[in-house]
Amino acid sequence: MEVTHAIGRRKAAIARVFVCEGAGQITINKRTLDNYFPSTILQYIVKQPLNTLGVAEKYDIKVNLIGGGFKGQAEALRLAIARALVKINAEDKKALKVAGFMTRDAREVERKKPGRPKARKRFQFSKR
């Protein structure tokens, strides 16, 4: 039984994924997918690469997730699963790339600048 490892990142979230053949169980930080992500939308985001290739019931996935919020974690996990599936079968890369699951979303939080309340916001201008 061969285990494939991959990492996905989004904003401050980091997902480490271990994929092996099994019955379709997804375990995140020792909790089930439904327990960790109660929202069906986030569950759908996580399963997108598996459903695209039609292998949702073929692999067991163990995940270590840290940092970020739930949306960032779900998208980091989606990227990690897609990368692991490509390591298992390189021919799947084209289908996942077309669907947009192989691209790392590089947007990060812009830092706060000195003399301003936030990154881009300015204090109210007063002419007099």
Based on the model shown, name its key terms.
128 residues, alpha+beta, Ribosomal Protein S5, domain 2, elongated
Number of helices: 4
The amount of helix comes to 25-40%
Biggest pleated sheet: 5 strands, mixed
Model regions low in confidence, pLDDT < 50 over at least 5 residues: none
How many extended strands? 5
Q: Enter the CATH topology name.
A: Ribosomal Protein S5, domain 2
The percent range for strand residues is: 15-25%
Question: Any idea of the CATH class?
Answer: Alpha Beta
- Specify the overall morphology: elongated
Radius of gyration: 18 Å
The CATH level-2 architecture is identified as 2-Layer Sandwich
Output mean pLDDT.
94
The strand line-up of the biggest sheet is 1-2-5-3-4
| Distance linking N and C termini | 74 Å
Order of helices and strands: EEEEHHEHH
Helix/strand class? alpha+beta
Would you spell out the secondary-structure blueprint of this structure?
Layout: E1 4-10, E2 13-21, E3 26-28, E4 31-32, H1 33-36, H2 40-53, E5 59-66, H3 70-88, H4 93-99
Parallel strand pairs: 3-5
Antiparallel strand pairs: 1-2, 2-5, 3-4
